[in-house]
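Input sequence (269 aa), recorded before submission:
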Amino acid sequence: MKSKSTILISVLMGMLVFFSACEDDNDYDYDAIIPIVMDITGPGVVAAHGLTDFPTRYHVPHRGGSTFEWSVTTAGGRGATIVLDDQFSSIAYITFDQSDEADVATISVVETTMGGITSDPGTRQISLEPFCPYDMDALVGEWTGTAGAHDEVLHASKTANLNELRMTGLAGFVNFAWGEAWVEGDGSAVLEFSCGDVVTIHYQHIGDSDFPDVYHMDGEGTFDPDTKTIELSYVVYYTGASSGPHETTLTHGSKGWQEVSRDETVPVR
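Predicted structure, token format:
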């Protein structure tokens, strides 16, 4: 049987080997690193909104001891605001300058190692979509419309995204005409506003009912910023069929529903 002193000596020898290995790690030769920026990760299509409160995150593979320098150029001669992460310069938050025209941006990243060796630039092209800002705060609240398929009074709220309204009540017929209740979702749909006063309801899930059934919606229209009205055509889809297109003129809070001339025709399942 080993004595206690023999065991203690073995433990101490093991600790010496461990600390010796750690010292070897600290002798890492940074001058031997050949830096290469491999991939720039992040969205390939971005709205050129110019709002620094809504930046887009990009990153490259991080290397300990290295620093990363970011730059942006665009075909249209516009710039961008670049904010590096507080801890890792391999992460950048980029806001492309506002533009109402489509553009192409080139992101460039250069790595410099702790040993002072600099890489060739790594680049990636990003498609910039035109962006025209709309004041969503002025459009929240009650709306009225002219179609019998939706609620007499609709309600709009902002989403976390720019130029979007979430409208509740467009599929109101599911409740007041068909007698179904929402068990998932609430039948609301997101309207996106874009340049040229275009309004789009991209195909989206709006809710499940207790029928049971699953509902989706899409649509398109135009916005008049002077009168705060939306001319909208939309379709509601459910299992194996659809309802619409439903044509309506939505007006923001300027009339009570009693004063609106409505088509009282409601969909039949």
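Checked by second reader. Confidence is low (pLDDT under 50) at residues 15-25.
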